[in-house]
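Quick one: structure for this chain?
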Amino acid sequence: MVDSLLTFLLVIIGLLLLFLSLAAVAFGAYMALEDRTREQGVFFAIWWVPAVAASLGVVLRDWVTFAVGALCFVVAGTALALEHRISKRPARDRRTGTRAPRRSSPYKSVKRRLFDRIKEYRKRAS
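Got it. Here's what it folds into:
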């Protein structure tokens, strides 16, 4: 009786962790759609993929999958923290930099061309 209750609780906890980690991956993908937060969103989504594996290890009661997923989650979190620390620049450097202005991203140029084609099509249609 106690063993089946413990197994049931473990499955419930694993499913909650699975839904949480899948929501985090979806949120990272949503962040990656925005131009300003693209890089952070990709890193965030990739960071949570091992958590999905770890939570599946809990649900399936496979301790090896859980251990490997948890280890990869910790390593990915460390890499994310280190990348965030390295990429941080003082606000003063960003405001008064002497670098050449950044070109627009390929995403923006493709979007602009697509909207121009839509405008041309609408002019021809009317």
